[in-house]
Amino acid sequence: MKTFMDQNFLLRTECARKLYHDFAEHMPILDYHCHISPQEIAQDKQFTDITEVWLGGDHYKWRQMRSNGVDEAYITGDAPARDKFQKWAETLEKLIGNPLYHWSHLELQRFFGYYGHLNSETAEEVWQLCNAKLQEPQMSVRGLIRQAGVTLLCTTDDPADTLEWHDKIREDVSFDTQVLPAWRPDKSLNVDAPAFADYIRQLEAASGITVKTFSDLKDALKNRMEHFHQRGCLLSDHGLDYVMYTPAGDAEAEAVFQKGLRGEPLTPTEIAGYKTILMLFLGREYHRLGWVMQLHYGCRRNNNSRMFDRTGPDTGFDCISSYAPADQLAGFLNALSVTDELPKTILYSLNPNDNAVIDSVIGCFQDASAVGKLQHGSAWWFNDHKAGMIEQMTSLANMGMLANFVGMLTDSRSFLSYTRHEYFRRILCDLIGGFVEEGEYPYDEKVLEKIVKGICYENAVRYFGFDL
After folding, report:
1. Between helices 196-207 and 214-230, what is the axis angle to 10°?
2. Element (H, E) at 348
3. Is residue 176 within 8 Å of 149, Cβ to Cβ?
4. Average pLDDT, stretch 412-429?
5. What angle do CA 293, 298, 301 make, to 5 degrees?
6. Is the pTM of this model over 0.90?
7. For residue 180, what are the β-bridge partners?
8. What end-to-end distance do the CA atoms of the chain give, in Å?
9. Burial class of residue 143 in the structure, from the number of CB atoms within 10 Å of its CB (0-12 exposed, 13-18 middle, 19+ buried)
């Protein structure tokens, strides 16, 4: 029987252990997609207790607490912090086989020096230890980032955001980690949303451009893209139901835009046509600016309407969608490629059944303008567990080029989540080590080092063009 989560956790072979400890373990972290707050970084927030830093905003944990029959008062409600932590500890001990069990204990080990097991009986011990540790200066937001070895991170920011907190971080020479904005223009695409007209007013205020027409909208978005670009932005991100391709003209987009401003009902075809033409416009602008386009899709959101009304979005009521037509994905990419305006693009589907589709589609659009110009993004959300990561990387290795993969990201709202990079790197080294041990790839240490370090860090630096 192996020791619980020791130094060789997840590393089943001698080659895997060598690859991890010699090459991967001490590589820095580049977290190019997350949802942490730039304001909290700028203000170097110090957390009050482990509940605040661990359970605040973490819908992964919230879902499992609900599965354990925990009342909502202990999840998103106003129960005391100590009681919420107890309910989480009681839930965690049941999560055998769940990545949250591993993530939580990696965080306890790396940031708090706790190598025991958090459960209902040890909750008080862990509560006291973590809360005392959190009062130490190195446990502030910036301290956690430094401890994790993060050289650069990208937050997720709306076009209407002033980016004032990014400015404050950039001007503070005492903090070495680069914190860059990433462009997330979903609200401009969601023309059928009840708050669409209100959002357009926000965009007007931010850009200084009166937005009366679809053409005005594009001008306002270009204005904000320049604002982001001047502050180091090099990538965009989109949360889509699916990658649609329903070609439409400017006149059709204009008509839909006007309906959206008036809050009038729209047909699915109208919505898809509007989103297609706006996405094509944005894709061409990303190509012009040299940005990377990230497309996250395959999620069906806010399924529990009763709980959505109570707790709002991003609180744990989303699921995998089974609708992601390959012909539309290919059609969208081709529409940008035909004029040589396809930017570097990363595709993430929440549905693991889309792995082979993504790996076959991206192969159609690779070219000499970039190494691995189109990427199959890291296993995402419901898939960022051991089996999901192995499946995503195996598919990429089988149908594409694993060695050019840009690797892991946290996609997290927690400043403790950087240990997910360790989790990923252990799984990566075990996978590659398995290829070597089984005689499927030679033990060429020089090449293996280049592959492992590339996927862990160096490929992303090169791919995004960060100045590090």
Report:
1. 50
2. strand 345-349
3. no
4. 96
5. 110
6. yes
7. 154
8. 43
9. middle
- With residue 180 as reference, give the H or E element that holds it: strand 178-180
The three-state DSSP-derived secondary structure of 87-132 is HHHHHHCCCCCCHHHHHHHHHHHHHHCCCCCCCCCCHHHHHHHHHH
CB 137 within 8 A of CB 143: yes
> How confident is the model over 433-461, as a mean pLDDT?
98
The answer to whether 213 touches 257, Cβ cutoff 8 Å, is yes
b/e code 311-334 from CB counts within 10 Å (16+ = b): beeebbbbebbeebeeebbbbbbe
State the Cα–Cα distance between residues 294 and 344, nearest whole angstrom: 9
Q: Are 164 and 228 in contact (CB under 8 A)?
A: no
Average pLDDT over residues 45-52: 97
Token representation of residue 58: 């973490």
- Let me know: does 321 contact 350? Beta carbons within 8 Å: yes
Number of C-beta neighbours around residue 150 at 10 A: 22
Q: How far apart are CA 395 and CA 400, in angstroms?
A: 8
DSSP assignment of 200-226, as one string?
HHHHHHHHT----SHHHHHHHHHHHHH
Residue type, 123: A
| Exposure on the CB side of residue 344, measured as CA atoms within 13 A | 22
- pLDDT tens by residue, 179-203: 999 999 999 999 999 999 999 999 9
CA distance 100 to 105: 8
Residue 300's pLDDT is 94
**The residue to which tokens 């199959």 are assigned:** 376
Judge whether residue 57 has pLDDT over 90: no
